[in-house]
């Protein structure tokens, strides 16, 4: 199955974030609890960890890019071989854990 | 990405626009120094001074004790002696403690000395309500607009924060620079090229035909939200962001109000002797009878209770309701 990793929330007063650092490249397998991406708000860092196992397939927002809460950052899948759909607008949501610090 | 990049600009958080202005001015001019509580290693209450002490050292980026009168007084003396200090007063409420050096010394020095002493001081502070109660929420800009010799600016966007702070740091008289707690979570496009925004120029944020809504700082965003709602009712609002309260760009406001025939002023501070009262009077002096209305805070301190805070302050719905009432009112009569 294919999933969209979106900007998690709610985060108080925050409407959009900036991607600070990806902790993997396309093809990388993430186990539950592994750090996938760090995001930046006006005053805090948001650590986004995998809430389910998955393979990072495509990064949609690179480091320095901005994205609104709830909008997609990357595409992941259960296995590395699954073909990616051309329309990524209606994907299941990747389960994540996130911490604002 | 949330939006396509805009050519020639870079999207920055509000705090980053402030830090960039300071960084550029401190690089360009060794006389520019920064004084304030937690401005050093901590980087400022909103991280708006992040990494400046690491770059410019503790002599030019100085942490001070909690002593606002002494902080502003130190800034006035340093400016009179040839430096170009920025003194950071964390919240505008605390500026009351520093008003004597700012009003009696900084703003008057040029007049008292026949121009022999100028005080190129910037006092930067943060106004506005965001859950912090009676003594950490006030918008006192109106108090400061009538001080001869003192410029007052209050940006609503990161680009204006950047451009106005640079202008303030180059200005040869004291400038009060006011930002707002609710602007810090915002981000916006800032020119890549070095840009200095002249003091005293308002910006038309939205063009309209039926009513002119004039505001500044965070309330500009509230005005724009109200204008969006009213557009669905076929009411066309022109929204002007003052940016600079002293000097005031009366021409931009008056010519817009003369064209639309109605003027609504919006501020987060008190209405009595407020910015709206001043602007409405000056517009009528210049442009003649125009229907006017004011929206501002309820005559009460701002509570830390969020329900009461919200009840005391303007929001888009109250602004929209005031515009509807204003446009339903009969045309203004010549006195």
Quaternary structure state of the chains depicted: heterodimer
Helix content of chain B: 25-40%
The run of helices and strands of chain B is: EHEHEHEHHEHEHEEEEHEEHEHEHH
CATH class of the largest domain in chain B: Alpha Beta
Number of strands of chain B: 14
Radius of gyration of chain A: 13 Å
Number of helices of chain A: 0
Approximate helicity band of chain A: under 10%
Determine the CATH topology of the largest domain in chain B: Rossmann fold
Let me know the CATH homologous superfamily of chain A.
RNA polymerase II/Efflux pump adaptor protein, barrel-sandwich hybrid domain
Radius of gyration of chain B: 20 Å
The termini of chain A sit apart by 32 Å
Spatial strand order of the main sheet of chain A: 3-6-8-1-9
- The parts of chain A where pLDDT drops under 50 for at least 5 residues are none
CA-based shape of chain B: globular
Structural category of chain B is alpha/beta
The computed structural class of chain A is: mainly beta
**Mean pLDDT, all residues of chain B:** 96
Note down, in words, how this protein is organized.
The complex is a heterodimer of chains A (101) and B (335). Helix content of chain A is 0%, strand content 48%. Chain A has 101 residues and is mostly beta strands. Chain A has one domain: Beta Barrel (OB fold (Dihydrolipoamide Acetyltransferase, E2P)), CATH 2.40.50. In chain A, strands 3-6-8-1-9 form a five-stranded mixed sheet, with no helix packed on it. A five-stranded antiparallel sheet of chain A has the order 7-2-4-5-10, with no helix packed on it. With 335 residues, chain B is of the alpha/beta class. Chain B has two domains: 10-191, 3-Layer(aba) Sandwich (Rossmann fold), CATH 3.40.50; 203-326, Rossmann fold. Chain B has helices spanning 14-28, 52-56, 68-80, 99-106, 109-112, 141-145, 158-170, 218-231, 250-260, 275-287, 306-312, 316-328; strands spanning 9-13, 32-36, 61-63, 84-91, 122-127, 151-153, 175-180, 187-191, 203-206, 211-215, 237-241, 244-246, 262-270, 291-297. Chain B has a seven-stranded mixed sheet, sandwiched between helices. Chain B has a five-stranded mixed sheet with strand order 9-11-10-13-14, with helices on both faces. A two-stranded antiparallel sheet of chain B has the order 1-8. In chain B, strand 13, helix 10 (275-287) and strand 14 form a beta-alpha-beta unit. The longest helix of chain B is centred in the N-terminal third of the chain and has 15 residues, at 14-28. Chain B is globular. The mean pLDDT of chain B is 96.
């Amino acid at each position: 199955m294919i999933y969209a990793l979106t900007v998690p929330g709610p985060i108080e007063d925050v409407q959009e974030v900036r991607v600070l650092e990806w902790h993997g490249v396309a093809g990388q397998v993430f186990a539950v609890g592994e750090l996938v991406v760090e995001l930046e708000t006006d005053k805090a860092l948001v650590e986004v960890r995998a809430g389910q196992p998955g393979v990072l397939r495509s990064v949609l927002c690179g480091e320095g890019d901005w994205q609104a809460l709830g909008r997609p950052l990357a595409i992941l899948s259960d296995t590395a071989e699954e073909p990616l759909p051309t329309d990524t607008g209606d994907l299941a949501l990747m389960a994540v854990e996130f911490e604002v610090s | 990405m949330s939006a396509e990049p805009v050519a020639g600009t870079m999207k920055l958080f509000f705090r980053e626009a402030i830090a960039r202005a300071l960084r550029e001015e401190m690089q360009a001019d060794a006389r520019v120094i920064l004084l304030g509580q937690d401005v050093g290693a901590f980087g400022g209450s909103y991280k708006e001074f992040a990494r400046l002490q690491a770059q410019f050292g503790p002599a030019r980026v100085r942490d001070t004790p909690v002593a606002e009168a002494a902080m502003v007084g130190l800034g006035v003396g340093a400016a009179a002696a040839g430096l170009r200090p920025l003194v950071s007063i964390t919240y505008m409420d605390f500026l009351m403690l520093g008003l004597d050096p700012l009003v009696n010394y900084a703003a008057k020095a040029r007049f008292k000395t026949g121009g022999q002493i100028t005080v190129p001081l910037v006092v930067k502070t943060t106004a506005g309500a965001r859950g912090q109660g009676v003594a950490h929420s006030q918008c006192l800009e109106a108090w400061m607009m009538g001080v001869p010799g003192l410029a007052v600016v209050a940006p609503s966007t990161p680009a204006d924060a950047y451009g106005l702070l640079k202008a303030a740091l180059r200005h040869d008289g004291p400038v009060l620079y006011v930002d707002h707690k609710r602007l810090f979570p915002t981000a916006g496009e800032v020119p890549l090229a070095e840009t200095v925004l002249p003091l005293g120029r308002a910006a038309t944020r939205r063009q309209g035909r039926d009513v002119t809504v004039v505001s500044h700082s965070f309330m500009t965003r509230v005005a724009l939200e109200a204008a969006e709602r009213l557009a669905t009712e076929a009411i066309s609002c022109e929204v002007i962001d003052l940016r600079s309260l002293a000097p005031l760009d009366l021409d931009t406001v008056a010519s817009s109000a003369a064209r639309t025939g109605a003027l609504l002023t919006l501020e987060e501070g008190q209405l009595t002797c407020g910015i709206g009262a001043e602007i409405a009077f000056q517009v009528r002096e210049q442009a003649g009878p125009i229907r006017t209305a004011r929206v501002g805070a309820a005559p009460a301190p701002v509570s830390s209770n969020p329900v009461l805070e919200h009840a005391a302050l303007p929001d888009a719905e109250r602004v929209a309701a005031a515009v509807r009432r204003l446009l339903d009112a009969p045309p203004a009569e010549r006195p």
